[in-house]
Write a structure and sequence with these properties.
Length: about 260
Amino acid sequence: MTRGQVTRESWAANSVAVGGESGAGLDVLVGRGLFKRYGELVVLDGVDFTVGAGEAVGIVGPNGAGKTTLLSVLAGSVELTSGEVELRGEIVTTLRPDVRCGRGLGRAFQVPRPFGGMTVLENVLVGATAGGHLRGAPAYDRCIDALITCGLDGLSNRRAESLGLLHRKRLELARALATEPAVLLLDEIGGGLTDAEAAELVLTIQQLHAQGVAIVWIEHIVHILVQVVDRLICMDAGRVIADGPPETVLQDAAVVNAYLGRSPA
Ligand SMILES: Nc1ncnc2c1ncn2[C@@H]1O[C@H](COP(=O)(O)OP(=O)(O)O)[C@@H](O)[C@H]1O
Ligand SMILES: [Mg+2]
């Protein structure tokens, strides 16, 4: 309990610093007419996308629907063919991923990418310094908060590459968290975990959401996703085919057909 309280307090302070001035109701992240093609292959076909401050949005859809590419164009690691991305009220379409990160956009990758040869703490410090632009004691404080929130405080001095999958996923989350995001992009971080591990991860993400961090979470394990998200988006073939309350989207005929109904009965 003590662990949670310490984290919550520090996060409340950080939430004010990061997202407080944006005010309730303002969209923290907006994509307009997002279009991406690789040669002849259209991967994003005119996606309009909004995330409100502090909102938790889930993204589902079959493999190849364009979900990861959507996160990549929002984060700036993939260049749009056309369209516009707005982060906390400013157009960031041409800005590099690290600049977007410094402005409050955190990302945890589908395949964890810890920096090898570095400890868990050092990995998270990279997030706090390179992404969060913190230095010295505030950087360490931020890292310790992120490690505690993600349940990694006992593993700070372990080599990152020696961690198992659950802990690698937690490290991915802690490193993103240390950048002090106003919005956090998560790509299938529940994949490959046991039910018990996934449940632990859900608790961590629920905690972040409760602290006011907006969350965009791609996840195939829908029953996990719906424990956290306020809204669900379904993509198919580069388009948004449904967007709304999870219970409505999951019953939508187009979603059932595209996502849930493809396997033979
Ligand atoms: N760098 C790339 N070059 C060519 N095609 C790509 C590239 N990245 C993704 N794609 C293609 O874009 C489509 C959408 O991929 P992705 O965004 O990873 O989908 P999802 O995450 O929904 O499974 C797929 O057909 C994939 O093969
Ligand atoms: Mg993907």
